[in-house]
Amino acid sequence: MTKTCIFVEGQTERIFLKYLIEQYLSPPTFTIDSVKLISNKLYTIKSSCSIDNTDHYFLIFDVSNDSKVLSAIIERSQKMVLYQGYTFILGIRDLYPNKKHDKTKVLNYIKQTLHNNGLSSTTRVILAIMEIEAWFLADYSFFRRIDDCLQVDYISQNLGIDISTSNPEDYNHPSKVIDQVLTLIGSSYKKKEKDVYRICHRLDYAKLCLDQDLHSRVPSLDYLIRCLNEALDINNR
Amino acid sequence: MILTHIEYFENKERPNFWKIEDINLNKMNLVVGLNATGKSRLIAIISNLALILQKKKLLTGHWKLKYKHDNNSYIYNLDIEKGIVEKEEIIQNDTKLLYREKDHGTILEIDTSDLIEFAPPRDELTINVRRDLKKHPFLELLINWSKHLHAYSFSGVKPNEIIVPGSPEALLQGLNTVPYLLSKGIENNQFIDKILKDFKAIGYPIDKISIRQQQMPNGLSKIPLVMVKENDLKCATEQGSMSQGMFRALALLVIIEYIINQEGTRTILIDDLGEGLDYDRATRLTNLLFKKLENSNIQLIASSNNRFLINSVNIRYINFLKRKGHIVKSYNYSNSKEKFEQIKLAGLNNFDLFTGNIFN
């Protein structure tokens, strides 16, 4: 059995990751639990009854605003691997509020920090460029699944953005792009729980997980899937 | 006057040699480090200097201070060994205003621009024997700074201990004198309302603060006791029954609110800030304190080893102390900009200064 803890920045990442894993590993031989850190106390969001007879166990650890992903990893992951049987640790965070030109520096600092703390072999941190919503925009077809009028041409005519050719990693605020598009149908995207569910429920996870062309255009998404494969020990099977 | 830099050592070439290097200060400061690295000692060397400048003590030590006032930068070097002032020096920008070794020295007269020789007693600071507002106004800066420095130990206060202030100045001497300070301001609704608001903001919702005068036995005068009425309790809680954390937080908020309304620039030192408070309240108190004092005329130098609290403040306000043997080195934004930026960029918390192997 593999046992993976995924540290995420907040609610959006937690919801997206749960959908992604469920779709990627279907049919189910896995268990997903979620916990949230509030005022330095852990609260269970959803707990599975048992992790017996499962091939893959995931704990999605939402550090919320109380901490930062890398800090939480440094603080907890070594004990999780040594004493709680975790086989792999993932961390997912946005590059924002850092600037795009800081990307290489940020990645190097993360790598160096993991190395200094003896975590290089079991831990990977994935940086969404600039926000996790860039991965939603990698499958822009969710817009028309929300409302049929939100076709590529309609969006282009009204907002001057061609979501079919733009690279979602080029947007400074992908979440704002989603908000702008949804404004066209009198709706919005404010990162609220219902906003995130509405999108995550309509994403094409087969495309996000398996489309190699898409992965070459969106390297951060490609790295997420590669890290997930590494956690699942897929390449060694 | 704002302190900007401190270096200090004592007992050179002796087994008990101790040195602290490269403390760089802003208006707001949090000194952090593991236990026994020198945080409290740093607070003590600053408050001791103020006592020396006020002629209350003559302690052995070697201070090198940098400070700013009205866009001028100053350096003050002071060496005292066994009750003898070995050296004293004040430099403004690049101009030497005072240089003194033991019982001889030179001092600049600002009104005439003359450099005057003088012979101070070996056991007195020039600052104390040559005060002259017209000729040496620069000496007043340090005198005023020392008069308006207030040092508090957050962990040193207990709800059941009250210090009776012997003079009006002593009202601000420690957190244990707060019942007296509060009884002085209890009729001032604005003052009390601000304390209620702040106390609520850090997680103690109370609707009333009052003072009860307790008659002491054997004809001693009455002493004031602080009472608070919590929103969800039907009765008031007397200070002796308050938790340590609650009383410490209340005492600090009262004293800060009082000082913030005083004239002139002031310095507040707080050792062990947040000690005894739970995570949430310690964080809220720190946030409130830094926010409240940021735009005031007060320089704050607080110390803590509460790593969660460290996360509440801007990383630029931090001096992270590490001790290697007898020498304490401070890492701060001025001398370790790249490392501090690394913490920000890598997405680490400030408390990873402790845990993240950043300065190893």
Short recap of the structure:
Chain A is an alpha/beta fold and 237 residues long.
Topology:
The complex is a heterodimer of chains A (237) and B (360).
Chain A: E1 2-8, H1 11-24, E2 30-38, E3 41-46, E4 56-62, H2 69-83, E5 88-94, H3 103-116, E6 123-128, H4 133-137, H5 142-146, H6 152-159, H7 174-183, H8 193-200, H9 205-210, H10 212-217, H11 219-231
Parallel strand pairs in A: 1-4, 1-5, 2-4, 5-6
Antiparallel strand pairs in A: 2-3
Helix pairs in contact in A: 1-8
Chain B: E1 2-10, E2 18-24, E3 28-32, H1 39-53, E4 61-69, E5 72-81, E6 84-92, E7 95-101, E8 104-109, E9 114-118, H2 126-129, H3 137-147, E10 149-153, H4 178-185, H5 189-201, E11 206-214, E12 223-230, E13 236-238, H6 244-260, E14 266-271, H7 279-294, E15 298-304, H8 307-310, E16 318-324, E17 327-332, H9 337-346, H10 352-355
Parallel strand pairs in B: 2-17, 3-15, 3-16, 10-14, 14-15
Antiparallel strand pairs in B: 1-2, 1-4, 4-5, 5-6, 6-7, 7-8, 8-9, 11-12, 12-13, 16-17
Overview of the molecule:
The complex is a heterodimer of chains A (237) and B (360). By secondary structure, chain A is of the alpha/beta class. In chain A, strands 3-2-4-1-5-6 form a six-stranded mixed beta sheet, sandwiched between helices. Chain A is globular. Chain A folds into two domains: 2-132 and 206-236, Rossmann fold (3-Layer(aba) Sandwich), CATH 3.40.50; 134-200. In chain A, helix 1 packs parallel to helix 8 (193-200). Chain A has helices at 11-24, 69-83, 103-116, 133-137, 142-146, 152-159, 174-183, 193-200, 205-210, 212-217, 219-231, and strands at residues 2-8, 30-38, 41-46, 56-62, 88-94, 123-128. Chain B is an alpha/beta fold. Chain B has two domains: 1-148 and 304-360, no CATH class; 155-263, no CATH class. Chain B is built from ten helices and 17 strands. Chain B has helices at residues 39-53, 126-129, 137-147, 178-185, 189-201, 244-260, 279-294, 307-310, 337-346, 352-355; strands spanning 2-10, 18-24, 28-32, 61-69, 72-81, 84-92, 95-101, 104-109, 114-118, 149-153, 206-214, 223-230, 236-238, 266-271, 298-304, 318-324, 327-332. In chain B, the strands form two sheets. In chain B, strands 9-8-7-6-5-4-1-2-17-16-3-15-14-10 form a 14-stranded mixed beta sheet. The interface between A and B is medium-sized, with 20 and 16 residues.
